Amino acid sequence: MSDAGAPAAEPGYLLDNAQAQAQGRFAGLEASFDTLTQRHLAARGLRPGWRCLEVGAGSGSVARWLASQAGPDGSVLATDIDTRWVQTASLPNLEVIQHDIVTDPLPGGAFDLIHARLVLVHLPARNQVLARLVAALKPGGWLVAEDFDSSLPHCLDPATGEEQAFVKVGQALVGALHRRGADTTYPRTLPHRLRSAGLADVGASGHLVIYHGGSPEAVLQQANLDQVGPSLVDAGLVTATDLQTAQRLLRDPAFIANHPVMITAWGRKPR
């Protein structure tokens, strides 16, 4: 299970957080998945005094929650390659730094808990990064990784031509991500990879969010298509009509769609 042999990726992250649509994407992620993430982190025994690392902090919602749980005797280090959207709420035990998890150093054996949501799946060097995160855990510390897996289409029951167009646009988005070095089949392999990395008490679960158009959950896909939809049309992957249909459905409360399956995997570094 290595990165060797993977096709060369096009340069740059497709869903660049420098774009204005990032704010909508973060809002959609928070509405769809923050409660799930909190539940998984709490289940790892998170308690006051823990030292935590949040990789790919985004808007900072998970980092702020971690800081509230770690308390004044604990700490949270939140990292991202682009920290412009991270809000700290002036929490004294929350530090935010600009940091490239692929190349920038991490302290070894330093953290009781490391969490990364929608990070590894986008990194061509994901296996090397996983090894670096394991090395940064204290003995007994937990790593929790969450990523979207493309095992299901974006509309489970495309009963109409318009809904089939929505599925087509979703598939085109996944294909474009892969051309930028992402691998949306990687999350299903995380349990084996965590075990191979030497972690114990490895477990995983999957979570599917089904949402209506116009809902807070729909904002996630709206932001994605607003940002990269025109490039999908320009590349000939979908038509302008397909894109317009998908964007309209995402605003229609009668439309029912779903995000990809969020696979959460966890493991503990042996003491």
What does this structure look like?
The protein has 271 residues and is an alpha/beta fold. It has one domain: Rossmann fold. It contains seven helices and nine strands; from the N terminus they run αβαβββαβααββααββ. The protein has helices spanning 22-43, 61-70, 126-135, 161-179, 190-196, 218-234, 240-249; strands at 51-55, 75-80, 94-98, 111-117, 137-149, 200-207, 210-212, 256-258, 261-268. The strands form two sheets. The chain has a seven-stranded mixed β-sheet with strand order 3-2-1-4-5-9-6. Helix 2 links the parallel strand 1 (51-55) and strand 2. The longest helix has 22 residues, at 22-43. The radius of gyration is 19 Å and the shape is globular. The two termini are 25 Å apart. Mean pLDDT is 94; it is low at 1-9.
What is this structure's SSE topology?
Layout: H1 22-43, E1 51-55, H2 61-70, E2 75-80, E3 94-98, E4 111-117, H3 126-135, E5 137-149, H4 161-179, H5 190-196, E6 200-207, E7 210-212, H6 218-234, H7 240-249, E8 256-258, E9 261-268
Parallel strand pairs: 1-2, 1-4, 2-3, 4-5
Antiparallel strand pairs: 5-9, 6-9, 7-8
Helix pairs in contact: 1-2, 1-6, 4-6, 4-7, 6-7
